[in-house]
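Worked Example 4.2. Consider the chain below.
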Amino acid sequence: TIERGDGGLVARLGAVTVPVPQAAAEERSLEAWAGKQVIVGIRPEDLHGPGSEAATNGKPALTATVDRVEALGASLLAYFGVDAERAKTESVAAATGGALEDAPLIKRAGAVFCAAFEPRSGIQAGDTVEVRLDPERLHFFDPATEQAL
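Applying the procedure from the previous section yields the following structure tokens:
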């Protein structure tokens, strides 16, 4: 949900409030979305966890329990749930046969995120980690049309 905060707009991802940079809010006309739900996306490489220099940069943090880890050599992909509402769109419903909860990798309620961690972080499924995100790297989509804002 996009909300008005003390310092401007914020995106509420479950229990976490992420300030939306003013330039991004203006560029994407997010003021018109205040009080409304949007789909928020972020690329795995823009989420930072243990073993990364960016993990200590003071950016907003999500506390996550890792559900699954895929080792890709140069990175570890960690999948985890966030207590935000899961996006439900026509294309996702079509891709999952309408059974979103049965889609692979979804083990718990909420939205699923994927982060690319440094291999030396040594994270494993079941670990609880702090994941930092850069608000400037958030992507916003209209839930009805799935078009980028």
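The beta strands are 2-5, 8-13, 16-19, 39-41, 47-48, 61-71, 76-82, 111-117, 128-133, 139-141. Residues 75 and 119 are 5 Å apart (CA to CA). Compare this with Example 4.1 before moving on.
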